[in-house]
């Protein structure tokens, strides 16, 4: 299967494209965002990496044909989990938060939570493909991101907001001028996952409090999440404040502990911490 068959995209206007892996039918299917700037273009999250995302972007002409644009496409993962980082190795420029650099550089499929089944891939990317063989390929990041870093695209800037909880290195990218938030798995319109091996509920609560603050200070109008559909400020406030309210309950703490224990056992059975 070619890259042009594997992916599909939708233009949301003003240089923003929403890309998805058509044949990865799962709640784990991550949104891939392509944002064009006057001097630099950026891909936010890269999916599984089973087919070439750069080939798709180029074949579909999503970067245009301006000969003056010489900066390589920058790929940023909002965090290291496999459904967001699997395609990073396909790019010359790669960015991720400093807390998860080692996971990528070492090909650590435990920390990248590499957990894929055959039933999630409804059409094989090539003959004989098997989910058992899937691994996140090791890649050395060229851009090690920290809280407050600004990614300058020329006519727009993205500010890095370190929002741990789902994972230790989870980030959002905030386009303050356009009041747009690329939220990764920090927040999306679904059940927020805080029970993975590197998740931490107390950090997640703090991150959600920060999200509520962004809404209250009118810094976000639109959220481009890591999964499912886009949503607005009111929904963001409701999701984040709802998590804060639930996180401290006894039932939530017990559920988190039980799921984390099961996740550790399952991941250690199927992945090692050694480079792949």
Provide an overview of this structure.
The protein has 276 residues and is of the alpha/beta class. The protein has helices at residues 3-6, 53-59, 82-85, 101-105, 201-216, 233-247, 250-270, and strands at residues 7-13, 16-21, 32-35, 42-44, 74-76, 93-97, 143-145, 150-152, 157-162, 171-175, 180-184, 222-225, 231-232. Helix content is 26%, strand content 20%. A 7-stranded mixed sheet has the order 1-2-3-4-5-6-7. Strands 8-9-10-11-12-13 form a 6-stranded mixed sheet. The longest helix has 21 residues, at 250-270.
- Please trace the helix and strand order, writing H or E for each element: HEEEEHEHEHEEEEEHEEHH
Our Rg estimate from Cα atoms comes to 18 Å
How far is it from the N-terminal to the C-terminal residue, by CA? 24 Å
The count of helical stretches stands at 7
> What is the averaged pLDDT score?
91
Enumerate the strands of the largest sheet in spatial order, edge to edge or round the barrel.
1-2-3-4-5-6-7
What is the makeup of the main sheet?
A: 7 strands, mixed
Q: What shape does the CA trace take? A: globular
Strand content: 15-25%
Low-confidence stretches: none
Structural class: alpha/beta
The total count of strands amounts to 13
Q: State the helical fraction.
A: 25-40%
